[in-house]
Amino acid sequence: MGQFHGSGMNTRVMYDEKSDNGLVLGGKYLPEELLAEIFCYVDYKSLLNCQLVCKLWKILIQTYVWRKKAEISFGRSLLLYKEVPWHVYYLMCKKKPFERNLVKNHSGECGRDKYWKILSEGGDCWKVENPPVGVPPLPNNELIFEGKQFCFVTSHQSCTKAQIIDLEVEGLTPYILDELQPIIVVSEWYSCRWDCPAIYECAIKLLGKNNSVIDLFHFRDSIEGEKQNQWHQMSHEFKNYGPGLRKISFYHGGADKLFWAGHYGSKMAGACVYVKIPTCQLHKNE
After folding, report:
1. Read out DSSP for 171-217?
2. Can you state the angle between helices 66-74 and 86-95, rounded to 10 degrees?
3. Which parts of the sequence belong to the FBA domain (predicted)?
């Protein structure tokens, strides 16, 4: 690898930043710029092992390659603090926590309660419809639905459920959440039948240690008259929420307003928690 010469394979070579240690491969010299470019296309597991080869490789990978690899992965520059720890970029590459939906089973394709905790199911309980009954199809131009037509539907008494998202498990480290505080977008589509008005509600909580509430967004809509028989979207952005965020609770529910037996209540689909890539941070000293 360039750090050993002759037969003295057990001799430890001291790092010298002016030498070609780590830059000679197979007897050929590679400039640091070219070596770094090659590393950018190595898978993240192998790149971890490459850090152990020699000090030059470790410095090159940790100070430049991980960041560049993350930028390639997300297809844009990451204008973050210069001192962002390398392992933050590593987790970005490994778990890709940004700009994907963190809500599982967002429309009921996996059943009415998988990944969700049912809090109440009055009337004839929760149900999943495929396709939605008594309303137009879900919007075809919304990528979240992937061309599928699943939705949750409530009944004639209150039906509510919630899902807790552990942000650290999803790859959003305390450093990202506390120091960079990326914008978090929450949204969901909702509707009700043409022949029966309904109530839709949701509440999204940003949770800290011991599930303390850091921030809260609550939305409630009475779907009646011209609002019926069409899909509406609820959306909200959380910004500048401060340090301590670790989990997000996504709660939704509803009921019909005429107390009809069956499933004439509000319908919901495409529950989404979406963390934007932080790209506008300046250096702390600037």
Report:
1. T--HHIIIII---EEEEEEEE--TTS-EEEEEEEEEE-GGG-EEEEE
2. 30
3. 89-277
* CB contact at 8 A, 93 and 75: no
| Nearest alpha carbon to residue 253 among 188, 202, 190, 210 | 202
> What is the location of CATH 1.20.1280 in the chain?
24-95
Classify residue 14 by burial, with Cβ atoms within 10 Å: 0-12, 13-18, 19+.
exposed
Residue ranges of the chain that CATH labels 2.60.120.260: 117-275
Chain centroid to CA 279: 16
| Cα end-to-end span (Å), the chain | 40
Q: What sign has the CA pseudo-torsion 140, 145, 149, 155?
A: negative
What residues have CB less than 8 Å from 101, skipping those under 6 apart?
144, 272, 273, 274
pLDDT, tens only, 244-276: 999 999 999 999 999 999 999 999 999 999 999
Q: Which CATH architecture has domain 24-95?
A: Up-down Bundle (1.20)
Name the phi and psi angles at 157, rounded to 5: -135, 170
Successive 10-residue mean pLDDT values, the chain, 286 residues: 45 58 77 90 92 90 90 78 80 88 98 97 97 97 96 98 97 91 97 98 96 98 98 98 98 98 98 86 46
Indicate the CATH number for domain 117-275. 2.60.120.260
Say if strands 151-153 and 127-129 run parallel, antiparallel, or are unpaired: antiparallel
